[in-house]
Amino acid sequence: MASNDGNNNGEFSFNANLGVVGRKGLAKIQTHKSKNGICHDDSGPAVKAQTIDELHSLQKKKSAPTTPIKDAGQGGAAFAAAVAVAQAADDVKQRQQLQSISASLASLTRETGPKVVRGDPARKASETPKAHVGHHDYFTPELSISDSALKFTHVLYNLSQAELYEQAIKYEHGSFITSSGALATLSGAKTGRSPRDKRVVRDETTEDELWWGKGSPNIEMDEQTFLVNRERAVDYLNSLDKVFVNDQFLNWDPEHRIKVRIVSARAYHSLFMHNMCIRPTPEELEDFGTPDFTIYNAGMFPCNRYTHYMTSSTSIDLNLSRREMVILGTQYAGEMKKGLFSVMHYLMPKRQILSLHSGCNMGKDGDVALFFGLSGTGKTTLSTDHNRLLIGDDEHCWSENGVSNIEGGCYAKCIDLSRVKEPDIWNAIKFGTVLENVVFDEHTREVDYTDNSVTENTRAAYPIEYIPNAKIPCVGPHPKNVILLACDAFGVLPPVSKLNLAQTMYHFISGYTALVAGTEDGIKEPQATFSACFGAAFIMLHPTKYAAMLAEKMKKHGATGWLVNTGWSGGSYGVGNRIKLPYTRKIIDAIHSGSLLNANYTTTEVFGLEIPTAIEGVPSEILDPANTWSDKASHKETLLKLAGLFKKNFEVFASYKIGKDNKLTEEILAAGPNF
Ligand SMILES: Nc1ncnc2c1ncn2[C@@H]1O[C@H](COP(=O)(O)OP(=O)(O)O)[C@@H](O)[C@H]1O
Ligand SMILES: C=C(OP(=O)(O)O)C(=O)O
Ligand SMILES: [Ca+2]
Ligand SMILES: [Mn+2]
User: Where is this region: Disordered (predicted)?
Assistant: First the structure.
């Protein structure tokens, strides 16, 4: 637009006769005509395209083929032939992959799976990578007998983080890039797991194998109802324009690696699992074959409340015999991760391997520590330690080979995250990381980690290698220290206690933590939670099975048990304060270094816990909670109250035998509070 020169009453005039420079007009652009009369803007080399579409097609090239080209010498013809052979092998494998995906997505009542095609339905021909276009980019089953068979299901298979970002930002509401490069997403109405909506198929096999009934997380459903929900999920997924498929691994122990396939409707879910499971190399992916376990995540679609066993519109259904899980009515991504963890709690003990709800890290000298604890007690925070190698933050296996992480990523809580206190987690929140339900500035896209407007349970899911001192592969030798974390909002458990084996088992089976109750109605009583094996929501067998395995392994490998309170000191929630993270870190340092093992100890009343009298870097007066309460009577009262809750909780286990002989069971029963 031309500007107003101010001298012609605001009227725009253009006098073509003014020549090169108008008296008060704009300079006329002078072009230098070449001999043939064509204008040139020839400051740089010309683009090698004749059209915009052609230009765009040049931008992307085909990913390198994964089948190694067999040495064909330098001869041009022989080399070309070898390339063709490798390409043909790739095509066959690609076709097998699509066939396998079609089989996964097959309705069980129709004869064949859907027609599947690779790639984004919105992708224009001009965006197809140049050079090679695979001959087998789609798969059509032989028979097609329904309307759904008339359409293709577009499959976005193991997309990269960058591709998933683009999908999320283009198509999913609430997806944004934050200032640090992470992808902010919303998980919808559910911002946490729904344990009461979890169902497990009770059939002839699982009837005898699993833990059912009171206290068990396994709420039964029958095979038929599972199939109804599976069909609902599969039909929903096939009705979409496109689905995401992830083929990945669980467990870094190569002998016990499990192949998982996750079919989902959202790029957010695909990116979450990309980060959380173990990522196959291109070669491993090509030879992936049939998965050992498949998740159908139709979380955006509810279950049918008229379906038997359904008590809400959410259902997370596990069928161990079919090796399948169906998710309806919740988009909370943690359901997938913890659902697979439940599967591992079934598969691994069958192989004499103990599955653990724990974090794990290793010192430079190879000393391994496990960190057990319920949600919010510090597994992720304390296993992420700048002075040690991170093996994993949440799910592990302990086998004859030592420990191995089940996952390929971490899932950290972000509420009140601080760059100073937790620099490694802070720095992991960068490009590729999924940030769930956080609040950010609409313009700068800077995240406000103190903001809990969406939920208190804000999360970051990142690949484990985003932590600089991750131990890759994520395996280590047998643990030296087993640390049980409890966030005791009553403020009566000591910051650290050394446990004997019976006490370790007592506290492992109890699985105690107490968190503060909802803050909406002001200060309330702390809420005690007991969750067997520090993960009752995920165990599939009776808790004593895992406990017996832990006792056996700790004894065999000489591991020491510790109880660490990451919760309150100087009074309960409302009076005292949460123990400062730097103090807890000093306590953990002293456990790792071995110095705490040789400290002087005294024994507490009621719980009979051995507590050290001094730890470097920690004020000695906080080591015994009795010292920190100004109101001594109130301390004693609270201590007895908590001890009573422990006793009551343990009653159900008193009639169970733990391990091979009764001796251990008796010792464990005696290791609880005495009053
Ligand atoms: N003394 C402490 N020890 C451990 N964590 C603490 C402590 N004080 C505050 N926290 C906070 O408590 C939370 C612990 O959560 P997290 O490590 O994610 O637990 P988990 O992985 O066991 O679910 C973190 O947000 C951490 O910053
Ligand atoms: C992912 C979860 O685990 P944690 O809180 O232990 O990190 C969860 O409980 O949903
Ligand atoms: Ca190949
Ligand atoms: Mn965690």
Answer: 112-133
Q: What is the mean pLDDT of the chain?
A: 90
Please answer whether residues 70 and 87 qualify as being in contact, where contact means their C-beta atoms are separated by less than 8 angstroms: no
As a whole number of angstroms, the longest Cα–Cα distance in the chain is 110
Give 573's strand partners.
576
Helices (H), 277-326: 282-286
Residue 370 DSSP SS3: strand
Please give the DSSP secondary-structure letter assigned to residue 470.
Answer: B
In angstroms, the CA 129 to CA 132 distance is 7
Cα–Cα separations (whole angstroms), residue 5 to 68, 293, 300? 69, 73, 59
Can you tell me the mean pLDDT for 207-219? Answer: 93
State pLDDT tens for residues 320-352.
Answer: 999 999 999 999 999 999 999 999 999 999 999
pTM of the prediction? 0.90
pLDDT band at 61 (very low <50, low <70, confident <90, very high): confident
* Dihedral sign for Cα atoms in the order 451, 339, 341, 242: negative
**What is the per-residue pLDDT across 17-53, written as a single tens digit (0 to 9) for each?**
544 444 556 666 665 555 566 666 667 788 888 898 8
Task: Report the nearest atom of ligand 1 relative to the CA of 422.
Answer: 27
pLDDT at 76: 77
Atom 2, ligand 1: residue with shortest CA distance: 581
Binding-site residues, ligand 1, Cβ < 6 A: 373, 375-382, 412-413, 566, 578-579, 581, 584
Two tokens at 668?
């464990």
